[in-house]
Specification:
The chain contains 13 helices and no strands. It is mainly alpha-helical. It folds into two domains: 43-113 and 154-188, no CATH class; 199-356, no CATH class. Helix 3 runs antiparallel to helix 6. It is globular.
Length: 375
């Protein structure tokens, strides 16, 4: 029995169609890569502006209602207040961070940096106590010789420190621009919300797309205001208090307060040692030391007041996810990436877990009849 001859015409049509699909897919991929390459320098800026606009949009709508529905006027007011209350204090703290790093580098280069002697208890620390005490003692007794032995590493650290300061200054400028862009997005918030929902529906279907859009909005607002916002505001308050009190390394300590706040660790771990330094330095009178100490203590406890005000609902994403997002974002995109990374990773986690929970292949549980309902 002879085998049927292949349909050459059908094979040719299928191969031509497949080639046509591959060429189109390649062109779409090339266009997407080209668009990403052009948009990549502004990606962090636009994402942070979007996060700000989603977070501040309820406040914008309240103001727009009071202004008779004038969306542009309400957005302008929100941007101006945000710049006044957030951007200006942040610039002061970042300037303090820059001055601290530059003073440290200058003192190390000019051999004018004085390292105090280590406390006696350092040598008794487990595992690393003796090594830390020996290194600290050498730095105290002959710091220039220690600098010469570590010259290549210190040069690299100085370069990285200056790069970090420059990155902080650039982040401040991006932060200012992102506020302005967020105001433009809020002014056209209604059409933007419809477009975002349409994109989610196109990706995940009508029902799931709408659910993912609502979930993403709720997660952005919860993380940005309830975690990142609280940590950021408290870091600014503590940084300003440290600057007023004359505590050295105020900018570095405020950055540490922000990381601790994201990890839900009390800022008192920074403010209490600062209060101890204040009293031990002997540079202040008793009244001034008490006043500065009270300001530092209150700023360290500010999260207890901010959480009821800003945390309208619980953040469903685990804190390790938010912390990893913040640290990873800071490592890749600087200070501004800390906010963007934490929010994006939390949103991605929530969408993924929502997708896992809505498995259509999961067998549905039969409805339980109410025993009091007659059959």
């Amino acid at each position: 029995m002879n085998a049927p001859e292949p349909d050459r015409a059908l094979e040719k049509r299928l191969s031509n169609r497949l080639l046509d699909v591959l060429i189109r897919a390649g062109l779409v991929l090339a266009l997407a890569m080209l668009c990403y390459k052009i948009f990549a320098p502004f990606l962090t800026l636009m994402v942070w502006a979007l996060i700000l606009s989603v977070t501040l949009y309820p406040l914008h709508q309240i103001l727009a209602t009071r202004f008779g529905g004038k969306q542009g006027l309400a957005a302008t007011l929100v941007v101006m207040v945000g710049i006044l209350l957030i951007v200006v204090p942040t610039a002061i703290v970042i300037n303090s961070l820059s001055d601290s790093v530059q003073n440290l580098i200058n003192n190390a280069q000019n051999d004018t940096l004085h390292i105090p002697a280590p406390p006696p208890g350092v040598a008794e620390w487990p595992i690393v106590g003796k090594k830390v005490s020996a290194f600290w003692t050498q730095a105290h007794s002959d710091f220039p010789a220690l600098v010469k032995t570590m010259q290549p590493k210190i040069g690299e650290l100085a370069t990285q420190a200056l790069s970090m300061v420059a990155s902080a200054g650039g982040a401040m400028l991006l932060f200012l621009v992102s506020f302005i862009i967020a105001g433009i997005i809020m002014a056209f918030g209604e059409s933007g919300a419809k477009a975002a929902e349409a994109i989610f529906q196109r990706i995940g279907g009508i029902e799931r797309g709408s659910e993912f859009a609502v979930l993403s909005t709720a997660t952005i607002r919860a993380v940005a205001s309830g975690v990142i916002g609280i940590a950021f505001i408290q870091a600014i308050l503590v940084g300003l208090a440290l600057i007023i009190a004359g505590i050295p390394w105020a900018g570095v300590l405020s950055l540490l307060v922000m990381v601790l706040g994201i990890a839900q660790i009390p800022a008192l771990l920074v403010t209490l040692p600062a209060i101890g330094y204040l009293f031990s330095s002997g540079d202040y009178s008793t009244a001034a030391a008490i006043g500065y100490s009270a300001v530092l203590f209150v700023s360290g406890m500010a999260d207890n007041v901010l959480k009821p005000l800003l945390l309208g609902r619980g953040v469903d994403a685990p804190m390790p996810v938010i912390l990893l997002g913040a640290l990873g974002g800071m490592a890749t995109s600087g200070v501004l990436g800390m906010f963007v990374g934490a929010t994006l990773l939390a949103v991605g986690y929530q969408i993924f877990m929502g997708w896992v929970a809505n498995n259509p292949d999961t067998p549905q549980q039969p409805a339980v009849k109410d025993s009091q309902t007659p059959a």
